[in-house]
Amino acid sequence: MELIEFLKEKNDFVSGQEIADAMHISRNAIWKQIEHLRKEGIEIEAVTGRGYRIVNTSDAFGEKSIRSLLHTKWLGRELLFFDEIDSTNDELKRRADKGAEEGLVAVADIQSKGKGRRGRAWETPAGVNIAMSYLLRPGLAPDIAPMMTLIMAIAAAKGIREVSSLDVGIKWPNDIVVNGRKLVGILTEMTAEPDYIHEVIVGTGINVNTESFPEEIKATATSMRIEGGKKYSRSKVVAAVTDAFETYYEIFCATGDLSALRPDYNAACVNVGAGVRVLDPKGEYDGMAKGIDNKGELIVIKEDGSETRVYAGEVSVRGIYGYV
Ligand code: ATP
What is the model's pTM? Predict the structure, then answer.
């Protein structure tokens, strides 16, 4: 058991001696760990004669606080936390090139070069949001990469609902929205041969405690704080989303497609049964979305009644009258 878990379980003052005996570590090692936890923002009181007590863990965001909440078997068992990084996707790519294993997770407070699709930027300012990426090695053909994006979308929706009970939906393929505004963005990148994937990196940006957004995205962006009217623990959100992703990914690996996850995805997808404008680079068109197929493509009935499938790779959709 980690020190943070031990203190949480006690939920009262515990003497240094009691901790040393229970955890088989020296008083000096305890002190070092306490200092480390404090650096993560975990408030720990130290009172002479009484010992240590954990005060408040809800603002803590760091490796230890995330780990203490995680229930996964392999995803995030190796977890890197950065106060600031260029992009968590780029960091995992660098690690993957050096042979890092499947399941490595990178989490950051600030991203200086956060990315969206098609070379666009993703904002991750200091102290409020989550930037997180997973390294996966599914060992299948490259056409499964867009499916990873959809798995991340259902996992993010489930995790955020668990922590906040906000009424979140998925805007196909890769955004989580609340009240028509974007709360989460997902970017999947891969390195592959024509018929084999070396690795897939699934990155996600979650707006947790943002109070206001830059002018350019004000109209389309929102945060859990804006929608829920209170602050949320970023460590809890990371843990809930990561727990959900591991479960969904294992279901995906058992079937090799999205057949088992399709009902969950369609139930959460705000485009299902609604009019959509498909922003296909080859030409825009309007239609009615029916939901995804087993590969994650969006089934759209065009205005002439014909059915088409939209590949999740590079296409965006909009509501006919607005963003959703
Ligand atoms: P679309 O929303 O057009 O369908 P997309 O889902 O592919 O496209 P991304 O490329 O993943 O969008 O995200 C990048 C875009 O998201 C940026 O161009 C910007 O408009 C918007 N954006 C950037 N940072 C944030 C943020 N923190 N929260 C919400 N939206 C953001």
Answer: 0.87
